[in-house]
Amino acid sequence: MGGTMIIDGRKVNFKDQKNILSVIRDSGIDLPTFCYHSELSIYGACRMCTVETSKGKIIATCSELPKDGMEIYTNSPRIRKYRKMILELLLSNHDRDCTVCERTGKCQLQNLAKRYGINRIRFDQLIEEKEIDNSSPSIIKNPNKCIKCGDCVMVCDEIQGVGALGFTHRGTEVEIKPAFNKKLSETNCVNCGQCRIVCPTAAITIRNETQKVWDAIYDKNTRVIAQIAPAVRVALGEEFGMKPGEVTIGKIASILRKIGVDEVYDTALSADLTVMEESDEFLDRFSKDENLPLFTSCCPAWVKFVENKYPELTKNISTCKSPQQMFGSVAREVYNKKDKEDGKKTFIVSIMPCTAKKAEAARPEFCHEGVREVDVVLTTQELAIMIKEIGVNFHTIEEEALDMPFGIASGAGIIFGTTGGVTEAVLRRLLRDKFGKEEREIIFNSVRGLEAVKEAVVEVDGKNISVAVVHGLKDADYLVKQIKKGEKYYDLVEVMACKGGCIAGGGQPVPRIITKETRALRAAGLYNIDKTTQIKSSDDNYIVKSIYDHILKENTHILHVK
Amino acid sequence: MIKNYDDLISLASLYKKSLDKQRKKVLICAGTGCVAGGSLRIYEKIKSLVKENSLLVDVDLEKEEGIGVKKSGCHGFCEAGPLVRIEPYNYLYLHVKLEDCEEIVTKTLKEGKPIERLMYNVKGKTYKTQEEIPFYERQTRLVLHNCGHIDAESIQEYIGNGGYKAVAMALNMESMDVCQMVIDSGLRGRGGGGFATGRKWIQVLSQPNHPKYVVCNGDEGDPGAFMDRSIMEGDPHKVIEGMLISGYATGAHEGYIYVRAEYPLAVNRLETAINQALEYGLLGDNILNSGFSFNIHIVQGAGAFVCGEGSALTASIEGERGMPRVKPPRTVEKGLFESPTVLNNVETFANIPIIISKGVEEYKKYGIENNSGTKVFALTGNVVNTGLIEVPMGTTLREVIFDIGGGIPNDRTFKAVQIGGPSGGCLIFDEEHLNIPLSFDSLESVGAMIGSGGMVIMDEDTCMVEVARFFMSFTQRESCGKCIPCREGTKRMLDILEKITVGKGTKDDLELLYEIADTVKNTALCGLGKTAANPVLSTLEYFYDEYLAHVEDKECPAKICKGLARIFIEPSMCKGCTKCGKVCPVGAISGKVKEPHVIDSNKCIKCGACLEACPFKAIKEV
């Protein structure tokens, strides 16, 4: 199908766009929406995308197919009036404390109100203060800021297959909350934070823990060390006007030092450790044909999902701690000694693209004698808040290197931040010395990219290993069901809860519309770092070797959950 | 178990004979209205009295001549219930009480004499037979034909009266031809939209995907409307037969009837009817040896008005929250369980057996061009004969309100009629509107709609602002809350209307009210939202002066809005007895003993206590 439409008197060709809205946007007009995300089903609730046809009919373009010869107006007097009225109605039932709102300046409601010149609300403020749900370790749900666009409900159900949120009540009393009036922490929420990514206002925000970090920094007796996850470095720049995928690790290092962090390290290094441990674990299980497929364990949202929905499969999850917790475990080994020597306290902060990491760090198995392996998890978003607060110029600040010894990682550890990365990293180790370079590249390419499920079969020592990579919990759920039914068989399955992997985690900066392109650019950023890194495979990383030889020695069990 | 077409025909004639053998028939209305009036006790009483005095005949038993005592469907004349009809005399007894039963049995059933005091009497004239009563005389009861004439709980009576013949006929036709017949009949959906039923069917028939579903919308939620309820209660087999034909015509084998849980009697009668039809082989596998199988399930709705909207209804059947979704895809493509679905309302399905058995030409004799057939309306409000009526499409409002409805009671004058439930519009009293022939197209052109057929008549004492407020409070409560214009807009319109009815409205509010109404009408997601503003828009158009009186003169012309009433003491008549001051709950009245008192209008809450307390009638309300 295809044809020509007339949009505001201009001829516009269309091809296979799934609705008029896409045709209009592709033609360069930023038609407003609250509830439309190209990757979610069409909800059609906000009515902001309505246009007038040449016959005077008002249609919502999100749910209409483009027709050849159709003539529409996106800014007719009626449309402008309706749009403003809808905004005014929304604002009349909204907590308008914008000056103290976390989303101010980045709130879609505020932006559109500004764009359409809403400078007066002709209605009395209707809002009754509703209780804020701050039960979750990862996100805060503030119903007073909610415009009931349904985005969070859809992403939680359609993309993540969790369905922790739903609609309750009718009319103006509609609320979005878990069933039976439960708190988020009492539900099957996996803390992935994707709801917060799609939320157009501050109705769902990240639990802000920056103050805890400031407190540690200001305490002279505390040594603050930070680990930075791979995906942070390719997204943080977006908060400062840079493009997705631009690598800012050097800036992060120098800024963290300016903030007062004493030592700055790389989680990609502990990802290298994960590769070592997980590939060994895999080979062991594979040789014994035990608890296969092996599911990866780096994603805490996925782990929680399995615990909630498929408790019988928890034995299939790798016993390896995630890179975040491996870093914490190793660092505690080193700094416990140091602390005793210099009488200081070591405070470990991790900077993560992920909201679920906050929940992971708080799990009891990662706390020993009252000390957590990781004290505080900050998301990329919270780091941006701190940077803005100290007022450094992100663009002009000079780049610096990370600290040693935990500042050198292999390319394999870096690509952990995108879907397929863990698998590729493991395969790099398993396939070293096997196949030619080009053949290896072909295999690696088969697990890269943003397809829902990627598969590969590789031969190691005369045996075929089948591998699957899946991202997005709904797709993962589907794959698990197929595996359980015996329709699919794999030896190793990598699962990342968020579509695209950690690069699109719930703690990352929020572009107005997150699309495949954003994800692809961030992923490309990681692959670019990999390209320019001399060490490609984790077992080539001499720091890894030295950690095994000098720190862990016989104690590799600290890298695993019991 | 009826095995084939011939079986059905011979069984029908057997039942017909048995029915004819019944010397006399007593039809006691067992619709919800009359049941509430005690009709079931009357039924039991008459039945036992008949037993004592003569014979009771069941249709399937070849007994001697006897008297059939039946629970019938709604007779429609709810104003005059409980109703008892006696055949073959066609006497209609109104407001029957338990103590009348003895006399009915001895006088009418034994001796064949009428009891005049129980008959319809107006202006000194007694109407002996039901058919003579003006309320019935002008009606054309096609869909409601069986309601009030046969036992609503008997499949035998339904078959004896030609029931299930239409489905037998349809099964001998090609599916396509059945659809074509419905198209040719010109039948349009009776649920309110007026979409051509046959076209809908053919679209479902042409869908390649299976399974397909037939869904009957019995979620009649309009305040004051009970057309579908009466059909489901009074002639449940007709609905089942219509769905069967629809299933055959579209290739569906599964049907759902969505009935609101507030209709327990309808649910009960439908369940009975479905079980009977299964027993007789008219539902289930290989119906009448045609190879066609069909089953029907009943789903009870939890009482959300919005579930009358197609996509919300199917969502509700699926167990989801009843919220409309955007279209496309349309219900005919992806309806229930994402499958092609025929969704029609109860009355539409009840028309189908008539079309098939009477034939297109005969059916089209009823109604007007593009609007064939009849329409059932529920007459309520300020009208003499409230109840359920059926008239050919194209009948004018004047005939409905004045001829059938008997005009306005208590010598008041007619002011407006609200058609189509909360989503409809209010039509003003003038020649132009009263002469509107009722059809899908004519009403739309004046800002109203047929809707499912609720008709609320209002007299001069009705405040139109209050009417708009009432309907808005309904739609606002029933909004599902999905789309912004309906969720927030209905609430804001209600706020403004409430402001106006308590005298706090301004002229700016009227403009704002119009602006919201216009936005909601044009941008809301579903039919409920798009029409939610109709009561506001139509009253603003036809009764603007009344709004102005409220906001500018702070006066309610109909004296309905209490908040606008002004209560004052006529000084010349006040004796200063202080009684008023003592009863005033807010201390708004002051004055010295034996001197005229005054009311502080800022404090007065218009409760009226002083009006009653004043022995000298010195206190007035304007």
Structure description:
The complex is a heterodimer of chains A (562) and B (622). Chain A has 3 domains: 3-75, Ubiquitin-like (UB roll), CATH 3.10.20; 90-206, 2-Layer Sandwich (Alpha-Beta Plaits); 211-552, Rossmann fold, CATH 3.40.50.1780. Helices cover 35% and strands 15% of the residues of chain A. Chain A has 18 helices and 19 strands. In chain A, the strands form 6 sheets. In chain A, strands 2-1-5-3-4 form a 5-stranded mixed β-sheet, sandwiched between helices. In chain A, strands 11-10-13-16 form a 4-stranded parallel β-sheet, sandwiched between helices. In chain A, helix 8 (267-288) crosses helix 14 (421-430). Chain A is globular, with a radius of gyration of 25 Å. With 622 residues, chain B is of the alpha/beta class. Chain B folds into 5 domains: 19-157, Glutaredoxin, CATH 3.40.30; 163-363, Rossmann fold (3-Layer(aba) Sandwich); 368-459, Ubiquitin-like (UB roll), CATH 3.10.20.600; 464-551, Up-down Bundle (de novo design (two linked rop proteins)); 566-621, Alpha-Beta Plaits (2-Layer Sandwich), CATH 3.30.70.20. In chain B, a hairpin with a 2-residue loop joins strand 11 (367-368) and strand 12. The mean pLDDT of chain B is 89. Classes of the chains: A alpha/beta (562), B alpha/beta (622). Chains A and B meet through helix 2 of A and helix 19, helix 20 and helix 21 of B.
